[in-house]
Structure formats: structure tokens, C-alpha cells
Amino acid sequence: MTTLAPRAGRSCHNSVNPLHSTVYFSPDLDKELAGVGIDDPRAAYFAGRGAAMGAVGPGVIAAAFYNFSYDLVARHVPAVWRVASPEAVLDARLRAVDSTLRRVLGEEAVASDEMAEAARLALRATEACTRHARPLYAAHADLPVPEQPHLAYWHAATLLREHRGDGHLAALLSAGLDPVEALVSHTATGKGMSPRWVLGTRGWHRTDWDAAAGRLRERGLLDGEGELTAAGTALRAELEEHTDRLDSAPYEHLGAEGVERLTELARGFLAAAVGAGGFPDDLIGKG
């Protein structure tokens, strides 16, 4: 196993992770969850992502997801589990993943040797993931690996996503960023969700956003125009470096050649999904 290039693991994650996320923007997920009685989009997201943890309460969801308002979560959890069991939700989610990937990638890609190879590589990377202090990863790691390669690849992408995500929350806590401050500062990088998407989906209000921006300005991390200062840019960079350190094991285990190949395959699938309209046009940005 050769030494990984700097940030190779992050680059691989950034290529693999978005295909996992397509299901949360897919009408197929809404359709499948509506079929088991969950017809509110926000309840669908909390259930769809949280079901692996079982019929947990709002505190667990808010803690594990980090950047959602507890009040928003509590409007839907635990009530959603009285509508559909976590097991029913997981089955519905996998059906939605199947139909979504077939639609945004095409049947040829789903059945391709490249998909099978990507699944093998991604699953190999997950062999080095660890459960301790990673609740969302650990919950998903207890789920069976689907047999079909495109579903196995999505499952592995989910494990890699939640493994890095759980570590990122530790980095956010270490940096002293609360949920809204994390969102505001990430949006200010130009790579995070737009304020419209944050305020429309995370349960926060404009007053929450403005107050968080004020706290970041007091710390010298944000300027009067809402842009990151040099200190803010440095903090966001250190956050990612901290997350890289906590998430290095899967990619070191896969090795340089494996990481390079998985990144290449994942970028091809991602380009196809983007071209097929798998993501909202206004999802990312400062506007």
C-alpha cells in the first residue's frame, strides 16, 4: 500500500458522497414513503436517514443530524414511528434508491462492470471504519449489504458518508461552532447550502441565521458583508483537515491505487447523475 496523496481521501469522499444524497432529492423517496403512510417531506427525511437507529426520539435525531432545529425534529419524531416502523422505512428507502439510481444513471451503468468494481472498492474501504463515537455510521453498519452492485455501492457510500459526518461533528464541537454557526460559515465558503435551502429545510428562522452571523463577526470569523475573514477561512480549512484526520482509516486501508480508481468511477457516476437532474439547481451557493 502506497502513501496517499494529500487530501486524496477527502477528494474520494466528495466524489462518492453525492450519489448517496440523490435519494433525498428524489421523488421516488417521497413516493415510497408515502406508500407506507409518511407523506410529509420533512418527516420523510428524518425517518429515511434516521431509521437505521431504530424508533429513536427527537433528541437522538437532533444530536446525530446536528444542524436541524430540535423544534422541527420534535414536530415529526417520534410521531413518524407510529405511522411506519423503522424496518418499513428502510425497505421503502432501498426501493427508492433502486429506482432513483436506475433513473439518474441508466440501466446500462447500473448493470456495468464499473458499478460492480465501484461497489467492491467502496465496501473494501468501509472495512476500516470504526463504530465508537459514530452513531449514524454504527447504526448503518449493522444493516445487511444489499446483493445488487448498485445498491451495495449506495450502501457503502452511506457508510463512508456517515463515518466522515460523525467525525465532522466532533470537529465542529472542537471548533466551538453551534449548528447555525456551522451552517452560516459553511455557506460563506461558497460550497455549503444556500440560505434559502437552509432556512427552508433545517427549521431555523432568519433571526437565528442573523444572530449566528453576529456571533461569528464577534469572533472575527465573518466580516460585515457576510464573507469569511482570513481567520474564518483558516478555521474552515482546519475543520476539514481535522475531519480528514478522523476519517483517514478507510482510504488508507483501500490504498492509493484503490482510492484513485474509486474516485474516478465515482466522478463518472456523479457526472451522469448531475446531467440527469439528480440535484436541485439552487442547492449550493450564498444566495
UniProtKB/TrEMBL annotation:
<dbReference type="Pfam" id="PF21863">
    <property type="entry name" value="HTH_67"/>
</dbReference>
<dbReference type="InterPro" id="IPR054058">
    <property type="entry name" value="HTH_67"/>
</dbReference>
<protein>
    <recommendedName>
        <fullName>SalK</fullName>
    </recommendedName>
</protein>
